[in-house]
Every structure is written in structure tokens, then in C-alpha cells.
């Protein structure tokens, strides 16, 4: 009764303030069944702030009709992705000049931007990492600096900012944080080097030089720490190099080509609970999965716009539950898959 009265008084057609439901009629890709009882399942995709927040109340919708619906943030040109200890999903967006934080558990969303900041504006956020306290580290490839935010999203400091305001790095891209050793690893793509810094931003060492040999790089980009290993995407050498944390060479995976198992535009990387290496290929529109010997185990995705498809995919993150997040950049979304590890027999033997 009260709701009808308000609708009549305000001259609002019944249901006018209601947000349209986003019904996705596209079929989800089938489960990918693998050996040993392993499987890969598509879970969902997301791209909007509105997908995180709870349903808006009637009173809020009434206000929306009168004052206009608020502008919801959405992914414009997402690039890199990370998850923190609370399961929040952090996505850099070069098109929006900021960082999206999706918290599906608490149904909260936050957008971080320093584009209009008078001091240390963030110009082109690239890759993102978090430390053990969920502080957020973002490389800015244009400003030449690293921006640090606390777990609540408050800006704390920059790393690599010189006295004149310019950045120390030529083009910082990949970043990985070792909280236990108090070290930060950063690729400087134009210098073809990895910088090892302490938590205050002082350079402790550099790794690599220009070339095609071991611990030599040609436009290195993404970084990942995996146990004692430091893994780097050696983009224009069309491979992934695996080093130890001091920079000694362990092995490399990949070679130039456009077939399964080869790499054309390697982007984001990650490891599942069984130690398999996942590599996004932006050109091929797929994610390839390798063992430590470089053998292709399987791949998923293809170029397209349907669920499970990719258009210029970039970033990748695998959380502690083997949930795989892939940044589908040109489709302006993040797609989520779940990897189920091998089923162990009841006697504890090999499957």
C-alpha cells in the first residue's frame, strides 16, 4: 500500500526504478576433463561494479529515478590482476587510469585513482601485486614509478620517485613482492633488467641484460614468485625464464610459433597447486599449461566473445583454491575458472 502510494505521488511507473537484470544467454563452455580425475570448470565472468554490490532497496531505486542512477564503474581496458588474503580481486585498468577492487564476499567495491593528484599522479597503472599484509603495489609504465596503497586502498607512497618528480624506471611492468625476505622484484622492460629492491625502494641488485641467452631478456614483462623460483615473461624472446631469487638460471619454457605449445605473445603467468605453469598468450587468445619440463599439458580458450573465449587476454592470477582469473582485456571482463587437481585414491597411492 505504502509503496503504491509513493509511486502514484511521484508519478513513477511501477518498477521504473528497478535495475535491469543482466541475463547472459550465452552457454558456458563444457568442463574440460583431464587425466587423473583433473578437470577445468568455467565459473563466471564479471566486469561491473554493479555485479558486486547487493540488490538496491526500493527507497534507493526511488532516489535513482528522481536524481538519476549513479555512475557505476566498469572495466575499460583491464590489464593485470591479483587476489589478496581476503579473496578480494584487484584489477589494474589502463583505460580507466585506476585500480578496481572487487570484494564479492563482503559485496563491496572500490576504485583507486590518482590521475588528478597534484603530486605523484598515477598515469598508466600496469601490473599489480600484494604483500603479506595485503598492501597493494602497482607499477606505472608511464610515470616510471611504483604506487603503494594499504589494504584499505589508502595511498601510502611511491617507489622510484626522484627529486624532480620523474620516475627512476624507464618502463616498470612486472612486479612481485617477497614479504618474508623483504624484497621487491620489478622488471624494467626498456632496460631489459629485473631490479631487486628493499621495501624502502633502495636498489639491492639487478638481474639480466639484453640478449637471447640465459638470464638475458628482450622486453621482460610479468613476474611471479613460485616457492624459491623467480619466473619472468621474456616477451620478445617468446619464452618464460625460471630463475632462482638471486638470478641464477634454472630453465626456460617456450619458443616462437603460432601452434599449441609455442608462444607468440606471452602475457600473464601463474602456478596451480600441482606446480603447473599457466601462460596467457594474447595473440592466440588462449591459456597454455606446461609442466616443469616444458611439455604442454593442456590449453583452454579461443579467440571470440563467448563465455570461455578471449580477445587479447593479458593478466592471470591463480588463488590458493586453484581458482583461475584471466583478464580478457578487449572483451572488458575477467573470466573465472576452477581447476580441480588429481583425485587421490583412498589408499594414498598414485592415481
Can you tell me about this structure?
The chain is mainly β. It has two helices and 27 strands. It has a five-stranded antiparallel sheet, with no helix packed on it. The protein has a four-stranded antiparallel sheet with strand order 3-4-5-6, with no helix packed on it. A four-stranded antiparallel sheet has the order 7-8-9-10, with no helix packed on it. A hairpin with a 5-residue loop joins strand 3 and strand 4. The chain is globular. The chain starts with a helix and ends in an 11-residue tail after the last strand.
The chain-level structural class is: mainly beta
Strand order of the largest sheet: 1-2-27-26-25
* Helix count, DSSP H or I runs of 4 or more residues: 2
Order of helices and strands: HEEHEEEEEEEEEEEEEEEEEEEEEEEEE
**What fraction of the residues are assigned to beta strands by DSSP?**
35-45%
Question: What can be said about the biggest beta sheet?
Answer: 5 strands, antiparallel
Number of beta strands: 27
What number is the mean pLDDT?
Answer: 88
Uncertain parts:
1-23
Rg computed from alpha carbons, rounded to a whole number of angstroms: 22 Å
What percent of the residues sit in helical stretches (DSSP H or I)?
A: under 10%
Give the N-to-C terminal Cα separation.
63 Å
Taken from the alpha-carbon principal axes, the silhouette is globular
Amino acid at each position: 500500500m505504502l509503496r503504491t502510494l509513493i509511486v502514484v505521488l511521484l508519478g513513477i511507473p511501477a518498477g521504473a526504478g528497478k535495475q535491469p537484470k543482466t541475463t547472459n544467454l550465452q552457454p558456458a563452455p563444457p568442463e574440460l576433463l583431464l587425466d587423473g580425475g583433473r578437470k577445468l570448470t568455467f565459473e563466471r565472468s564479471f566486469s561491473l561494479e554493479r555485479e558486486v554490490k547487493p540488490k538496491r532497496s526500493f527507497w534507493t531505486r526511488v532516489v535513482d529515478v528522481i536524481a538519476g542512477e549513479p555512475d557505476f564503474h566498469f572495466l575499460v581496458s583491464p590489464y593485470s590482476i591479483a587476489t589478496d588474503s581476503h579473496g578480494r580481486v584487484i584489477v589494474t585498468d589502463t583505460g580507466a587510469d585506476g585500480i578496481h577492487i572487487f570484494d564479492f564476499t563482503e559485496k563491496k567495491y572500490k576504485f583507486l585513482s590518482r590521475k588528478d593528484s597534484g603530486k605523484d599522479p598515477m598515469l598508466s597503472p600496469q601490473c599489480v601485486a600484494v604483500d603479506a599484509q595485503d598492501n597493494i603495489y602497482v607499477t606505472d609504465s608511464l610515470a616510471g614509478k611504483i604506487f603503494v596503497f594499504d589494504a584499505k586502498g589508502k595511498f601510502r607512497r611511491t617507489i622510484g620517485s626522484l627529486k624532480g618528480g620523474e620516475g627512476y624506471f624507464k618502463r616498470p611492468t612486472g612486479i612481485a613482492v617477497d614479504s618474508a625476505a623483504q624484497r621487491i622484484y620489478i622488471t624494467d622492460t626498456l632496460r631489459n633488467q629485473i631490479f631487486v629492491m628493499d621495501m624502502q625502494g633502495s636498489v639491492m641488485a639487478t638481474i639480466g641484460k639484453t640478449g637471447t641467452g640465459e638470464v638475458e631478456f628482450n622486453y621482460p614483462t610479468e613476474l611471479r614468485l613460485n616457492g624459491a623460483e623467480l619466473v619472468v615473461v621474456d616477451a620478445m624472446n617468446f619464452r618464460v625464464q625460471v630463475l632462482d631469487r638471486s638470478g641464477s638460471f634454472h630453465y626456460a619454457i617456450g619458443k616462437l610459433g603460432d601452434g599449441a605449445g609455442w608462444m607468440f605473445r606471452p602475457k600473464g603467468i601463474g602456478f596451480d597447486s600441482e606446480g603447473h605453469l599457466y601462460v596467457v598468450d594474447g595473440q592466440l587468445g588462449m591459456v597454455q599449461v606446461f609442466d616443469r619440463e616444458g611439455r604442454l599439458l593442456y590449453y583452454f580458450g579461443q579467440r571470440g566473445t563467448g563465455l570461455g573465449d578471449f580477445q587479447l587476454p593479458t593478466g592471470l592470477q591463480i588463488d590458493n583454491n586453484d581458482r583461475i582469473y584471466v583478464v580478457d582485456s578487449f572483451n572488458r571482463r575477467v573470466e573465472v575458472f576452477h581447476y580441480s587437481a588429481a583425485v587421490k585414491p583412498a589408499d594414498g597411492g598414485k592415481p
